[in-house]
Specification:
The chain is of the alpha/beta class. It contains seven helices and five strands; from the N terminus they run αβαβααβαβαβα. The longest helix is centred in the N-terminal third of the chain and has 38 residues.
Length: 198
């Protein structure tokens, strides 16, 4: 692989982030407010997604339960992508489409937040989780890409849709990760104010 191909990945990623930042900032701010309000009321955040998006769910939960950039008390976040016994039992006994929705039904309560991540917006099991969350009077923060897919159409006015204006999955995932870091930082600032170095 030549250096020019490597550089093109960096440039394309950086350019998309710069272009998307203005478009996505208001929705990211809404997501921070929604999540902070839920956490302040003693609620929790459940997260689901497939593949790289599953890794993003685990990354997000780790930042909240552990820490992001400053010491603080643990915050309740759970990635629904980590319990292989639950996921394989549900997939085997019911269907793969229900691996997250069953967990939302088991763990989710009114006032909780579902962080639903799907680069296409069309992941069937994430769609089922969104449906289950809305039935339980949870709010949804959806991270998608492309045109937002079916998930974008499922959301209510009380939910938040952060749709990356790109087609390439790798680029969408890179913006999703930056978005997750923005959300974690925003929650910390809402809790403590100021910058980490203040």
């Amino acid at each position: 692989m030549n250096n020019q191909r490597i550089l093109s990945h960096f440039h394309e990623s950086a350019e998309l982030k710069i272009q998307a930042s203005t478009v996505l900032a208001p929705a990211i701010a809404q997501a921070i407010e929604l999540m902070f309000a839920a956490l302040s009321n003693g609620n929790k955040i459940l997260a689901c997604g497939n593949g790289g998006s599953a890794a993003d769910c685990q990354h997000f939960a780790a930042e909240l339960v552990g820490r992001f950039e400053r010491e603080r008390f643990p915050l309740p976040a759970l990635a629904l992508t980590t319990d292989t016994s639950i996921m394989t039992a549900v997939a085997n006994d019911y269907s793969y489409r229900e691996i997250f929705s069953k967990q939302v039904q088991a763990f989710g309560q009114a006032g909780d937040i579902l962080l639903a991540i799907s680069t296409s917006g069309n992941s069937g099991n994430v769609m089922a989780a969104v449906e289950a969350a809305l039935e339980r009077e949870m709010r949804v923060v959806a991270l998608t890409g492309k045109d937002g897919g079916a998930i974008g159409k499922m959301l209510t006015d009380a939910d938040v849709h952060i749709c990356v204006p790109a087609e390439r999955t790798a680029r969408i995932q890179e913006v999703h990760l930056t978005t997750i870091h923005c959300i974690c930082d925003g929650i910390d600032v809402a809790l403590f104010g100021g910058d980490v170095n203040d």
